[in-house]
C-alpha cells in the first residue's frame, strides 16, 4: 500500500513539475513580449524614417552624414533589426520568438544578438533566469531519472542474454549511428532547406551539440528561420540531459 502511495506521489510531482516548467516558459514569453515588442516597433519606425531621409538626401551626402547613417544602422543591428528590411518585417519579439528566448535563458544556452533592449526587460531577464535555471535543472533531472530507469532495465536485459557481448556492441553501434544521424547529418540537411551554406551548417551543428553558441553563426532573416530555433533548443536540451543521466547512473 505504501509503495503504491509513493508511486502515485512521484507521478503527481512529475506532472506538477512538468506543467510548472512549461507554465514558467509561457509566462516568460508573455512578459518578454510585453516588455520588448513595443520598444522594437519604435526602433524600427525610427530606423525607417532615418532610412527614408537618407534616400531623399543622398545626392548631397558628405562624410559626416555618412558616418551618422552608419551609426544608425549599427544601432538598428544591435537591437535585432534587419537594415535591409522594412516596417512589415516580422517582429523579433512576437510570442513564438519570446517563448524561444525564454527557453534559451533558463537553459543557459543564449542566442546571438537577440536580447532585451529595455531596462525593464533586462531587469526582468535577470530575475527570470535566477528562478528559471534551478527549475530547468530540476526538470532535466526528472527526465534524466526517467530515462535512466529504462536504460538500467535495458542493461539488465543485455547482461542476462547469452550473447551479451554481441548485443552490447550492437547497442553501442546503434547509439553512435543514431547520434550521428540526428545531430550531424539530419540538422545540416534541414538547415540547407532554411538558408545556410554547407560548412556553416555543419559547424553550427557541432557547436550546438557541444552546448556552445557563436554569434557569427546565428541564422539570418529567412522565412523558415523558426525551424532552426526549435532545432537549436531541442539539441541543446538533449545535450543537457547527459549530466543528469550520468549523475543518476552513478
Automatic annotation (TrEMBL):
It is found in: Membrane. It comes from the Eukaryota. The chain crosses the membrane at residues 12-35, 126-147, 167-191. Pfam families: Ion_trans_2. Keywords: Ion channel, Ion transport, Membrane, Potassium, Transmembrane, Transmembrane helix, Transport. One of its GO terms (molecular function) is potassium ion leak channel activity. It is a multi-pass membrane protein. One of its GO terms (cellular component) is plasma membrane. The keyword Translocase does not apply. GO terms for biological process: stabilization of membrane potential. Residues 89-147 form the Potassium channel domain. Gene3D superfamilies: 1.10.287.70. Its main location: membrane. This is Potassium channel domain-containing protein. It comes from Hymenochirus boettgeri. The lineage of its organism: Eukaryota, Metazoa, Chordata, Craniata, Vertebrata.
